[in-house]
């Protein structure tokens, strides 16, 4: 596995790989969810490139940038073992040298929900991912369905900026009790961890009610919200168009139920498509 | 000469051209200044692509988007005669279909001067040019030194987003009396046209004073401003770092004297590098 530390190194290495190239961007702290993205990329491409970069632009003030879990050697070993051909692991200085100042505003899909809770988050995500795409020139970009709004934002930015990379959404991997795999799950204490799967149950209940009933979002989400267990605190539970992330008042198959809870200082998100 | 109307058509055609490809973006209303960009691109590349698109995103409210001069057949004939291999002339709908919402904020180089006078202008410029670059994948981008802040903004965005296109600045072409060629010169009435070269004279006087004297920008620009002739009204006359467009209080060789005047509803800009 090649390792590149700068945009120029990444591009020089990426251009030598057999094509098509599939790309998996990560912030490290890899778990089975990331590895499912890598496996999917291997299945569909001649080469896989991955990035490990904890992107300061997408963390707000008071968020967990400093304490975000980092273990580069472990991450690199996992990616190597999974057959990744090129790992792009730039430093903060390589990505944002003195004088850096551009940013990409993804527009409406990034405004509500996570974008409202985390000002600047999706501009940071869009900016770093477009930089990574320029440095690696993949044919396909693999993203987790778990971060559904990030997926919508990046689909929109790629489309709006006339980029040809194909965005591929990979289904969320879950613990046996339904909790979506996330690098932030390590922050949960025993009580929070025990309650965490209730977010998924609430989303599934809302999706089921909307699939079976008359599509009244307010009624379905009110009932579902009652399933969130203490000490989790519900931040939002809503139904959106999966492309625009516009909230829906009436919803049926294909719409997306999204939710976020707070567990102490940790936020957990999840989503469920109405079947 | 091939003509493409959509990003997909442009990319399919551009990828078949002999490389390297040089790209000249325009808003049409072509004059000798544009043709100098095309000629330079021909000299340095195997193929030249040009675009003609009057970009609504870079016009503010009350600006001249509606009345901006348009003559597609004439522009296309000029580009064909100059040896352009591919003309990309998208419609507004092809560039900004329903649901379009992303934008690129170029950051500090776009904040002052033209950016302050024309809110949103440089975000509109950056967004459209990055779209054009994605649709054409040129090796080199040719821009006029005349729009010095646009040049600084696009250099910064290309660098910050890790794009590999080389930005080439082409010297300003001028009328015999020194007025920089601009598609907006057609708006000038006789009195405005007669006074217009005084902007260039003022910039040159400031540059000369700064090259010869002690580098005191305030003193040099105060003297130069007095050279602006009625009915022109001075909007700004300043000295900046040509990369960051940060204003300088002391300046010497390599710094850029920039100025803008109003002539009725028309704005004229120009710049002069301190020799």
Would you write up a description of this structure?
- The structure is a homodimer of 275-residue chains.
- By secondary structure, chain A is an alpha/beta fold.
- Chain A folds into two domains: 2-170, Rossmann fold; 184-273, 2-Layer Sandwich (Pantoate--beta-alanine Ligase, Chain: A,domain 2).
- Helix content of chain A is 36%, strand content 20%.
- Chain A contains ten helices and ten strands.
- Chain A has helices at residues 7-14, 32-44, 72-81, 92-95, 114-117, 121-136, 148-160, 190-195, 197-212, 217-225, and strands at 2-4, 21-26, 47-52, 86-88, 103-105, 140-144, 166-170, 233-240, 256-263, 266-273.
- In chain A, the strands form two sheets. The first copy, chain A, has a six-stranded parallel beta sheet, sandwiched between helices.
- In chain A, helix 1 (7-14) crosses helix 6 (121-136), helix 6 crosses helix 7 (148-160) and helix 9 (197-212) runs antiparallel to helix 10.
- The longest helix of chain A has 16 residues, at 121-136.
- Chain A starts with a strand and ends with a strand.
- The A-B interface holds A 7, 11, 99-109, 126-127, 130-131, 134-135, 156-157, 160-164, 243-244 and B 7, 11, 99-109, 126-127, 130-132, 134-135, 156-157, 160-164, 243-244.
């Amino acid at each position: 596995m090649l390792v590149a530390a700068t945009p120029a190194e990444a591009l020089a290495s990426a251009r030598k790989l057999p094509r098509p190239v599939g790309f998996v961007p990560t912030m490290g702290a890899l778990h089975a969810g990331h590895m499912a993205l890598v496996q999917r990329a291997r299945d569909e491409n001649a080469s896989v490139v991955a990035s490990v970069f904890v992107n300061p632009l997408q963390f707000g003030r008071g968020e967990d940038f400093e304490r975000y879990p980092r273990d580069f050697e472990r991450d690199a070993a996992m990616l190597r073992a999974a057959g990744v051909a090129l790992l792009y692991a730039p430093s903060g200085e390589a990505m944002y040298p003195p004088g850096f100042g551009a940013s990409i505003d993804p527009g409406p899909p990034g405004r509500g929900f996570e974008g409202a809770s985390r000002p600047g988050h999706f501009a940071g995500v869009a900016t770093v991912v477009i930089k990574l795409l320029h440095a690696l020139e993949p044919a396909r970009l693999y993203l987790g369905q778990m971060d559904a709004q990030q997926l919508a934002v990046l689909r929109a930015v790629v489309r709006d900026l006339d980029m040809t990379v194909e965005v591929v959404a990979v289904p969320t991997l879950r613990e046996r009790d339904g909790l979506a795999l996330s690098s932030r799950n390590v922050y949960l204490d025993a009580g929070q961890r025990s309650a965490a799967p209730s977010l998924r149950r609430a989303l599934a209940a809302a999706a089921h009610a909307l699939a079976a009933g008359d599509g009244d979002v307010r009624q379905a989400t009110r009932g579902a919200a009652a399933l969130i267990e203490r000490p989790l605190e519900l931040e939002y539970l809503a139904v959106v168009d999966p492309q625009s992330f516009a909230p829906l008042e009436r919803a049926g198959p294909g719409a997306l139920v999204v939710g976020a809870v707070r567990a102490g200082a940790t936020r957990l998100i999840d989503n469920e498509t109405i079947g």
